[in-house]
Amino acid sequence: SARGFIRVADASLELGVSEVTIRGDLSALAREGRAVRVHGGAMPADALWRRANASPNSAGNLVLHLAGNVRQWIVSGVGGAPDVRQRDAEFAARDGAGLDRLLATLDTACADAVAVFDRLDAAALAESRTIQGRRTTVFAAIYHVVEHFSGHTGQLILMAKAAAPEGAVRFYDDTGGLARPLFLPEGVSDSPPGAP
Question: What is the pTM of this model?
Fold first, then answer.
């Protein structure tokens, strides 16, 4: 399409083949590095590193940046691992890893952070650390990473919505005013067990 995104259902109708065939073809293109699979369709692989102009970051830059931030603040700053982050390189990259490798990098950083969390007790939250040259507490470091992740996730969602056809990126089904989450598997709730 003109926006660099194609929906599975639209391609199926346009080409006169089944959605299963389209999904298989898109998966093959993704394996070859020629497309990035997203919910409901695909976009060109180079869209991951595309910038609107010289100023904003690409989605690839933001994923690198999030992984670096989690590593520096939690794995190194709180957990004590060596800090090897090169923050400027996260933003300077103009191309690089494909989506699978980028997400694996972020998943590993988050898994390493969870391992740090597993070693903390309540008293550790008040302990002092120096991260990025400033004094902070373990609690404040964790809060910083959560807030930071949230802000950049919003940017990534905006990029996805800008690249996709209208309505293709949705998180809730608002039928009947209920805002039913589309991001939870069928039958799964985000309510604590036993909640009304």
Answer: 0.75
- 23-48: string of b/e by CB count within 10 Å (b at 16+)? bebbeebbeeeebbbbebbbbebebb
CA distance 26 to 13: 15
**Is 161 within 8 Å of 169 (Cβ atoms)?**
yes
Are 41 and 168 in contact by the 8 Å Cβ rule? The answer is yes
CA distances from 23 to 40, 71, 139, 192 (A): 9, 35, 44, 35
**Separation CA 108–CA 67 (nearest Å):** 8
Task: List per-residue pLDDT tens for the chain, 196 residues long.
Answer: 445 666 777 777 788 887 777 777 777 777 777 776 665 555 566 678 888 888 889 999 999 999 999 999 999 999 999 999 999 999 999 888 888 888 899 999 999 999 999 999 999 999 999 999 999 999 999 999 999 999 999 998 888 777 777 777 778 888 898 888 887 777 788 888 877 6
